[in-house]
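Final report, results section. Input specification for complex C-07:
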Amino acid sequence: MTRAMRRPVMAATGALLLAATTAACGSGGGGEGEGDGTLNVWIMQGTNPSAEDFFADVATAFEEETGATLDVEFVEWADAHDRFVTSIAGGTTPDVAETGTTWTPEFADAGALASLDEYVDGAGVSDDLVEGLVEAGTYDGQLYGMPWYAGVRSLVYNTEMFEQSGVEPPTTWAELEEAAAALKKEYPDKIAVAVPGDAEFTVYPWVWGAGGEVATLDSDTWTSGLDSPEAQEGIDFWTGLATEGDYSSAGATTWRETDVLDAFAAGDVGMAVMGSWTPGAIVDANADMEGKFAAVPIPGQDGGMSPSVLGGSHLSMFETAEDKDLAFAFIEMMTTGEFAQQWGEQSGYFPGQVSLLEETLQSTDPLVAPFAQQFVEGGASVPVAPTYGAVQAKATTSTMMQSILAGDADVATASTAAAEEMTTVLNGSE
Amino acid sequence: MTLQLTETLPRLSRARAAVVRPWLLLAPALAILAVLLLWPLVRVFLFSLQDYGLREITTGEPSWIGLENYAEILATPELWTVVLPNTVGFAVLSVAGTVVFGTAVAVLLASLGTFWRTVTSSAIMAAWAMPAVTGTYVWVWIFDADRGVFNDALMALGLLDDPTNWFTNRWTFYAIVLLNVIHHGFPFVAVTVLAGLLGVPKEMLEAAEMDGAGAFRRFFLIIVPQLRQVFAVVIILSTIWDFKVFAQVYLMPGGAGSNRSVLNLGVWSYVESFGQNRYGFGSAIAVLLTLLLLVITAVYVRTVLAEEER
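Structure output:
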């Protein structure tokens, strides 16, 4: 009995203990005391199926160029945040690591990352980096995350359903609504457009597209713009497709992006906001979908493009790196030129260097070119604040979406509550 | 000095040895317990008095804020209007449901022959062995709005016109969690109570039967009083488990924080503390939860003991 009673505390303590007391054994590739020609690197597992071979090639090239040995450790995405925190606590961070774009400002704020500005300027690549990724990696006016690779969300549609309903891919919001209406008429039992309630990155394009902002920084204070008339107009359009047009489904109210993908792959969805990395997964899930879907950039309100979040990774240099020039030599090798391109091809993501994308932009593949166009011309970043992770943990935007879609609150009420909460959490004054 | 010690030793030792020896023998075990249990508890309590986040971890400089974390927890209106009612209400219903259903199954098992008892207990063990995560996904799948068998059945029977999303409503959400938790928790109760049932003296039951007591009277007047200890253990453990239900809520659609009306103590504390790197705040919640469970357990144990004495 006593043992069971203490369980809740033990469970809660687990993470703390990890962070506080066992830090020393938390990392296998610690950077301490290893300055003699070895570079310790953490890379996330699962992005590139042939990562091992890729890094074997990189290690050979790196040794040729610098004479130093490369020690790459693969880390699971799910454990990565805890491992970073643990290693930061114990001072055993790697020299260089892949950091998810929303983590970069968080670790920079904690004082764990080294600024990259002088190195990037020295290498002369500062004008050749994808803007949305630079924005996401810049904290307090300094670059802490070197753009490596990323994906972007655009509008993916079922070409068979579109042809059958006699509609063209939309280029404005009005056209999108017309297309949804035509799809619903032809396929009353299917979902014309999926409006998921638990997928914040599918919401922001409509906020930006209507001229609104998710949040803005003025001197030291963040203000969420989700309750501005423009943002509300965008949210109203997007949720209205479900609540007024009934073009979505009851289930979608609690859908995450993975649920959207499942339903789309099953052929049940006419159009949806989906990532540039999803086409492969769609065909994997249902081989019949091969060649039956395409993408267009998310339409702007009256034409053009609505900006969309770039999701991806930076390479960051940790303050514990003893030989920072060596560390940057690796970062440069990975994020520019041949290896960056190769990584992009193998993983299905876009490289963070603009000049590498030019070839991709010329592609006529209906599942590559529209994403690439959105990536270069219509990419944006969520608020670059160390506290944005907290906003995501509180599910502020998803709470707003779900309450609107479930009919519990109207757009004005829900967006005002969301803006208030986001402002409070972003400023860390809770 | 050495001489003196040697001289006094025989005199002292007899009196002291009786006191010291047990402690000496216990020392290794106590030391391990202190390191494994006491020190973490103390750490958690110390963290709960600090503003302990990523920055404090990096710099190693503690930021003591006294009881502010506790004040903030208790001053959160959400805690009183949503989180605690959900947690307590759910714990009461699921403990009652688990114990009643588990006992019913135990009675069934006790009355079965060896073959059917083996078959039934194997089926029960399968429910028990299923990890909470897997079980939760199965229930989510059953109640899925667009493709779940539950909605399909209701619509085929003409009871429902359009698919309904059962996860957006607080009551239907917790009805599903209740099914999930009872399904996962009753095997433990059934097996424990069965063990107790088999220990009830046959003579007493036969005597009662001869005196004309029906099955229900025999159960409530003879078996239940005999099993008071077993029920005490089962109820306390279930209460503790059901109080800190996490995965079964967190993994449900909308359960990870986007549906605020279904937050319970487990999910709320995770979202507010670990999700936001506020480890001090999370420790304070853990301390309060431990105290709460200690009080519940103490009250319950005292009631049982008091009845026993009477």
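Residues 78-309 of chain B form a domain with the MetI-like fold fold (CATH 1.10.3720.10). The mean pLDDT of chain B is 88. This concludes the modelling results for the funded period.
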